[in-house]
Structure formats: structure tokens, C-alpha cells
Amino acid sequence: MSVASSDISGTGWRSTAQRTAAIVSRGIETVLGTAGALILAVLLALVTLSVTLRYVFSTGLTGSDELAVWLNVAMIAVGAPLALHSGLAMRLDLLHRVLPPAGRAAFDVAADTITMLSGLVIGFGSLGIIGMIGGTSPALGLPEWMRFAFFVPSGLLIVAQVVLRQIADGRLALTVASGLLTGLIWFAAPGLYINTGLPPSIITGLIALIGILVAAPLPHAFLLAAWLAISFGSTLPEPALVNNAIGGMSKFLLLAIPFFLLAGTLLTESGIAARLVRFASALVGHWRGGLAQTTLITSMLFSGASGSSIANAAFGTTTFHPELVRRGYSPERAGAIVAATSVLDNVIPPSIAFLILAAATNLSVGRLLVGGVFAGLVMTLFLGIAFRVTAHEKFSAAKAPGAEIRAAAIAAMPAFGLGLIVVLGIRFGIVTTTEAAAVAALYTLGLGLWRRLGAGRIFGAFRQSAAEAAAIGMLIGTAGPFAFMLAVDNISGQIAAAATAFGSGPGMVLLAACIILLIVGLFLDIGAAILLFGPLLLPVVSQAGIDPIAFGVILVVNLMIGGLTPPVGILVFVVSGISRVPAQALFRAGLPYLVALLGALALLCLVAILFPPFF
Questions:
Q1: What are the tens digits of pLDDT across the range 462-519?
Q2: What single-letter DSSP state applies at residue 527?
Q3: Structure letter (DSSP) for residue 198
Q4: In contact, 547 and 565? CB cutoff 8 Å
Q5: 231-276 pLDDT, tens digit each
Q6: Rounded to whole angstroms, how far apart are CA atoms 365 and 373?
Q7: Do residues 346 and 307 touch, judged by C-beta distance below 8 A?
Q8: Fewer beta carbons under 10 A from the terminal one: N or C of the chain?
Q9: Which residues are bridge partners to 136 per DSSP?
Q10: Burial annotation 274-307 (CB, 10 A radius, 16+ → b, else e)
Q11: Residue 181 predicted with pLDDT over 90
Q12: What sign does the dihedral 364-369-372-373 (CA atoms) show?
């Protein structure tokens, strides 16, 4: 989001201030990144020890689950400042990109003000809770306030990182403007009361929308909107708001997210992911549109390892985009192919989206993962047909002999083993979701060591995974107060009325729910949309006779399609950022694949109504 300033001087105090700010900012990031990586390593060791004691020695480690939750909360607090300027900052910069310099500067001031105010809410709100909360954790014997203490420095470091980055980028005027605006709102807002006649949740949504449009990080737009809603009659005071947010992060199931991210990162770093590419190429490389089909099959196979569509989009762009262009595809069509195939990652297990959904609705993770396999195969089929129809390759590979296919399959076996650990282990109740994720991370760490992966690259994988997990954890936590206000204001009743607008039969209710979710997916990140709309829509469709698991899968498919649609389209923006192809061109080029995915969605809805056991 940084804007280069033309008034940067090469000498004098201004240049010195910029260099100093950049050095301090990088130093903070280094310290926080190291701390995050170490916490993730301790988490992995703790859960692994717990699993070993439970299944090998039929005993347990007292307080291990509670300690793991506290460590995960600490990792989120440590990683929150790192996420501000990373690929997972979750900023919608579509409007920002098309504005003239003066408009971009105004948006920057607004976005930085929102982020700094959110940091102050996190820091001082947590400090307020520390002074109010009592009691100790029964499992750990530690004061409960310690869990909130992690976020006091975290919130203040968020503010510091915004200011340091502004100074480092030479935006001194914007630093002053955003600082003054932050101070004005921080001191004035608590004394205001504005009666608009609207429910506080609607006000929260409108303020959050403004934050999203000016390219503020999504978690901070949510949190600040909930805080400002206090002036409009919200019943969530600042301490309760922060308590709600941190409570949303304090779930044992959420430990699976950093472990799955770590497994996917280590699989790529160790070179095992490249073996999946060779296996996919041997299978389908000779088909019409062979390289596009290879990209699709690789994405399907890699989905069983990473669980993150963003990770898959980044991997696919660097691996396939240049070769697709060399084979005759336009840069925008090549990028659209990669973005479309990346949709599979949060559908085919292990799926972080399903973990978030399960945490929000208490649905069975194992059943959701099995349903995701079926949905992923249907989506793969429809995308394969679309790739065949739109093929523009100048040449295709020769059909691989059987011996080559077998050799490629054997080489890729370690990656297949990861999928078996996750799906079978969870589905048949051998291990919990978090335990399966830890075993998967340990398995890929073993693969990395077997492949002689250096200590530096292993540390980098832990650091990256911790930062990405912290960004997702922040989103889950900060969406909590918004979801609470939606419940208090009975927005669920209005959503139910909208979902039954076409009738109360299962087909009509499911159609209305899909339309609602497709619209929501235009504007919200999938994680936020799941947290806000999953609990609202699930009771409605269940009452209409739709199997909850089937709808959970359809909900995720719906929202993943939103990763390809403007204006948010996170997968398109990831591909655009790496390939340097304008996002608008990628959106246009991806229309055939969007149609294919909508066709897959329609078939899944039909199956959910007529043959729900398929899920």
C-alpha cells in the first residue's frame, strides 16, 4: 500500500529518518518473525508429545490442550503486526489502484488511521481486561489475565509498524495527517452518542465497508467498526469487545490451521510438490490443453497437502504461468487458469475453510472433509472441460509410457501419504483434527529432513506459516464481535426471510442461500464470510430439509468462487501480484472458468437435494 513520495531527499534529516525507520521496522519484523517461528515449533512439539503419550502410552499430559491454546493465542498476537504488509494483509486495493495520487494519499490516510485505531483498541482494550479479570486457568494454574497480556504489546506494535512504514516510505505528511486523525477519533469517539435509528450491527457493517473500500486490512476494519459502533448504541463496550475477539481465537480446533500451513510450505520447500507436477504431467500432459490440465490436476493433488488456496495460487503462478505463456496462452488467460485451479485448495481436504466453518458452527470436520473430496472432484471435472474448450496451446507433450507414469506415481507417494493421514485419520476418528494436522506437519518436516532441507529454509517455513496463521487467527477473532452484534440485532431473522423469499421448499431455500453467498463473496474474504454467514444460514437451510454437511460444503464452494470475482477476488489479486498481469484483465479472462464453476455448484446443489449421502 506504500506510496513513493517525490520529495524524498537523498541527504539530511529526512533521509536519516527514513533509513532509521526502515531499520527499526525490519528489526521488529525479524524479532516477531523469530518469536512466531519458535512458538509454532513449541506448539508442534507439545501436540506431538501429547499425541505420542495418548496413543502409545495410554496416558496424557496435564493441561497440554489449554497450554496449546494459549501458545496459539500468543502466536497470533506476535504475528499480528507482521501481517500488516504481507500477502495476507487482506486489503481490497481495487479502488486505490485507479485513483489519482491525491485520492490514493487520502485513502492511505484513512486506511492507516483505521489500522492504528484498531491497534489502540487491541492494546488498551486488553490492558483494561487485565485490570478487570480474575481467576486462574484450572488446567495450567496461571492467571487468566496472562492470555490477554499478549495483545497489549501487539496492539502498540501494530501502531508503531504503521508509523515506521510511513516514515520509511517518505510519507511524512501522511504520517502527521493520520496521526492527528487517529488522536482526534480516539479521544472524541467514546464521548459521542449518535442515534440513527439503525441497528448497531448495520452501522458496524457500513463502517467496516468503508474500511474495506479504502484498503484497510480486513481484520482491523472489522474491529474498529465494532468499536465505533459503541457510539451508535452497541451493547459491546471496549473490554467486552476485545474479550469476544480473543475468545474467538482461543479454540483448540484452530491449532490445525498453522500446522496445515506448515505442512504445505514444507512440502513445497522439500521439492515433493514438484513431484506432484511431474505425476500430473505424465497423466494428462498429452491431452488437449495438456499444460492447463496438468495445472488443474497438480492443484487437485496439492490441495491434499496445503489446505490454503492462497498458497496454491502462489505456487501455481510461479510454477505454471511462464510455461503456459510460452505454450501460447495470453498472460491474462494463463493467470486465469492458475487462479481458477486454486479454488480447489479450500474444498479438497485438508481445508482451512472447513476448519473455520466447523469452529463457527460445530459441524463435523471429518464429514465436511469427505464432502469436500466429492465437491472437489466435481469442480475438477467442470474445470477440465472448460480448459479443453478454451485450449490455446501451440504444442502438447507426447503421451507418457506406462513405466514413466508408474515411476512418477511412486515418486509422488510421499505427498499422497499426507492426504491419507489427514482424511482417513480424521474421518475414522483415529485422531482429532488438530492432532492430524500436527502429524501432517511432523510428517512433512521429516520429508524435508530426508530431502536434506537446510535449517534456514525450515526456519523460513516455520516463520511464514506462523505469520500466515496469525493473520487468519486475527480475522477469526475480529469477526467475532460483528457476528455477536448480528445475533443481538436478530439479523438472522432477516437473513432467514431473505433465504425463504422464493419459497420454503429445499430447492428454493438453497437457491436463495446460494444467491446470498455469491453476493457476499463479491465483497468479503472467505474466512470473514464463513464466520458471519455460516451460523446465520445453516439453521435456515437445515429447517428446509437440507443436510447441514451438504450445505456446509456448498457454502465453502460458493464463497471460494468469490475468490475469482471482482471487486475482492483474492486469488486473482495473488496471481496478479506475482505475474504482474493487471487484475482487471485476469477477471475478464477467467469468465469461462467462472461459468464452469457455477455449473459445478449447480450440480452440487442438485445432488444435495436428491442424493445427500454423496456428501
A1: 998 899 889 888 888 888 888 788 777 777 677 777 877 777 789 999 999 999 999 8
A2: H
A3: S
A4: no
A5: 998 888 888 899 999 988 888 878 888 888 888 788 778 877 677 7
A6: 13
A7: yes
A8: N
A9: 143
A10: bbbbbbbbbbbbebebbbbbbbbbbbbbbbbbbb
A11: yes
A12: negative
Q: Could you please report the per-residue DSSP string of 420-462?
A: HHHHHHHHTTSS-HHHHHHHHHHHHHHHHHHTT--HHHHHHHH
User: Phi and psi dihedrals of 143, rounded to 5?
Assistant: -60, 140
**What is the amino acid identity at position 298?**
T
Question: Residue 350 carries which DSSP code?
Answer: S
Contact in structure between 361 and 421 (CB atoms under 8 Å):
no
Neighbouring residues of 68: CB distance < 8 A, sequence distance ≥ 6:
43, 46, 47, 50, 252, 255, 434
143: three-class secondary structure by DSSP: strand
pTM, entire model: 0.81
Round to whole Å and give the CA distance between 171 and 179: 12
With beta carbons less than 8 A apart as the criterion, state whether 442 and 268 touch.
no
Task: Give CA–CA dist 124/254, Å, rounded.
Answer: 25
Q: Which residues on adjacent β-strands are paired with residue 143? A: 136
Contact 113, 185 (CB under 8 A): yes
Least confident of 132-141, 211-220, 421-430: 421-430
Alpha carbon distance 527, 530 (integer Å): 5
Helices (H), 57-150: 64-79, 94-98, 101-132, 145-149
Identity of residue 226: A
Going by the DSSP 8-state scheme, the letter that residue 398 receives in this structure is P
- SS3 state of residue 582: coil
Amino acid symbol at 245: A
Domain ranges (residues) in the chain: 12-250, 254-453+489-614
Could you tell me the three cell numbers for 530? 464463513
Sign of CA dihedral 574, 578, 584, 585: negative
DSSP result, 528-545? HHHHHHHHHHHHHHHHTT
CA distance 107 to 216: 9
In whole angstroms, give the CA distance from residue 184 to residue 182.
Answer: 6
Burial 66-84 (b: 16+ CB within 10 A, else e): bbbbbbbbbbbbbbbbbbb
C-alpha cell belonging to residue 482: 460483528
Task: Please check whether residue 267 is in contact with residue 418, taking contact to mean a CB–CB distance below 8 angstroms.
Answer: yes
C-alpha cell recorded at residue 296: 488443474
DSSP 517: H
Selection from 479, 489, 474 nearest residue 203 by Cα: 489
Q: How far apart are CA 238 and CA 126, in angstroms?
A: 9
Integer Rg of the chain from CA: 24
- Grid cell, residue 590, equals 477467467
Nearest to 500 by CA among 510, 490, 492, 491: 510
User: Measured in Å, how far apart are the chain's first and last C-alpha atoms?
Assistant: 42
Residue located via cell numbers 493465542: 73
